[in-house]
Fold:
Amino acid sequence: MISKCLFPVAGYGTRFLPATKSMPKEMLPVVNKPLVQYGVEEAIEAGMTTCAMVTGRGKRAIADHFDISYELEHQIAGSGKEKYLESIRNVLEQGVFTMVRQREMKGLGHAILTGQVLTGNEPFGVLLSDDLCLNDGPGVLAQMVELYKQFRCSIVAIQEVPPEETHKYGVIAGGCLKPGIYSVEQMVEKPAPEDAPSNLAIIGRYILTPDIFDILRETEAGANGEIQLTDALQEQARRGCVMAYKFRGRRFDCGSVPGFVEATNFVYENYYSGD
Structure:
């Protein structure tokens, strides 16, 4: 039903300097796997086998990762080290990777608009690699696809955050249709705690319908000259329907150093089986 997932991966990763001076932040490894690969695996599990990357300057390592390295394959062929390539081989067998470059950093909304040439006129997923989501059941995007089958409209993933942290997120308010599912009535980008309509924060998982592109083209740039996806979704909700879904699973903010370290420790203790 939804076969494409957009990955905005053009950001500079300034919070991880100097490590990200020449290496994309999306390639930072959580134990032995880069952040972006976790996201691609989640998308493929949800049936989104076409992975569309909106990249920027200095991001060539992402394209190289989702390609065959003939020299490496030759060097370790027939050795016990081949097992370490199993996960990326599975991804390459199942996924198709397309890329377009975002020439200017004008916000998430602009990145998604840049990716229209890759997604076309159909619903698509969006995954922000900074948000690592883990669980022992279906991934977050797979959960959202099931919801899309019912509502056929844009969907944002949300979680409850401490009220004092609302300034870090887009925040929604709306009617609760059933436990964990909301009809969005209001969205506010990074509100101060006293201005936040709730403590339900949007995290980096979306399913968007293609009419979002026309809305994004009409959306005026906000702070720092950036086009905010939250503003476009607010308008989409006003015109029709946007749902919010409190997903099952655990999310780590790998865009911050403490969150990245927490994720690394969690994955090592719960999922890593190497030697």
Remarks:
- The chain has a mean pLDDT of 92.
